[in-house]
Design brief:
Strand content: 5-15%
Bound molecules: adenosine-5'-diphosphate, magnesium ion
Strand order of the largest sheet: 2-3-4-1-5
Number of strands: 5
Distance between the termini: 64 Å
Length: 248
């Protein structure tokens, strides 16, 4: 009993959480199964690593800041025909993140831009990448308040240290000159450091109007589209087609 306590204390000291919580049952189990010392050690270390990875993934998922969870498996490519199964298969392999390619999803509301972005972000989290999801309006807020708010600064630092940054809904709200400048600085900082996913209801040709300054827009587009895959998602709104009524 005394020894078990010491094992638990040592395990705690070494951050061996699996051993700390399960020391008693591990020993009983090993006795019961007549495990070899080698198998016992193997099993403990394997479980420790699995637990550590699981915890890290949970942390990455929380830090990603997805507003909801969307899965790639639930994305109906028969409804959204501008993306093929072959393209999805390639995208979930995550090579595009290793090569720091950007993805742009353009299209009207309800065609699945946010769904596919979150779903790919979720896959990236599963694959071990650091991901940050942010809407354009939240991004503008944190960029403008980073000097006065520790929370905003923290969010910016999270974004800057991510391998994939998802910026959702560019184009829904007007952007001031100052905001366009801050956006440019962020895009420059992320350029060739991280992959971006950007969704927008506006075509690239309309971004100039959106961001005010044509020179700035060119500079931003230059960086974003340097290595980039663009998806024009057209068609009907999934929301409207699958509208649920309370009184049917
Ligand atoms: P957008 O961002 O283009 O406005 P969303 O991604 O928010 O559209 O999609 C609206 C809703 O419809 C979401 O609940 C989303 O899960 C669903 N949806 C859109 N397209 C698809 C699709 N092709 N397959 C399955 N669900 C979809
Ligand atoms: Mg959306």
């Amino acid at each position: 009993m005394e020894k078990l306590k010491t094992i638990q204390e040592y395990a705690k000291n070494l951050n061996l959480n699996y051993l700390k919580t399960n020391a008693g049952t591990i020993i009983e189990d090993a006795d019961l199964k007549n495990m070899s010392y080698q198998d016992l050690l193997l099993s403990i270390l394997k479980n420790e690593i699995d637990l550590k990875n699981k915890k890290a993934q949970e942390r990455r998922l929380k830090n990603a800041g997805f507003p909801v969870i969307k899965k790639i498996e639930d994305f109906d490519i028969n409804f959204q025909k501008s993306i093929t199964q072959k393209q999805i298969n390639r995208l979930v392999e995550m090579e595009w993140i290793d090569k720091m390619y950007n993805l742009i999803f353009l299209g009207p509301p309800g065609v699945g831009k946010t769904h596919i972005s979150i779903a790919l972000g979720y896959k990236a989290v599963e694959a071990g990448y650091k991901v940050s999801f942010v809407t354009m309006s939240d991004l503008m807020h944190v960029l403008k308040t980073q000097e006065i708010s520790r929370k905003s600064k923290g969010k910016i630092n999270k974004i800057l240290s991510s391998s994939l940054v998802i910026i959702d809904e560019l184009g829904y709200l007007p952007i001031s000159r100052e905001e366009a400048n801050l956006f440019f600085q962020l895009i420059s900082a992320l350029h060739e450091q991280a992959s971006l996913i950007i969704t927008s209801n506006k075509g690239l040709d309309e971004w100039s109007e959106l961001l005010g300054d044509p020179a700035l827009t060119t500079a931003i587009l230059d960086r974003i589209t340097f290595r980039c895959q663009l998806f024009n998602m057209n068609g009907k709104s999934y929301r409207l087609e699958h509208r649920k009524s309370l009184f049917e």
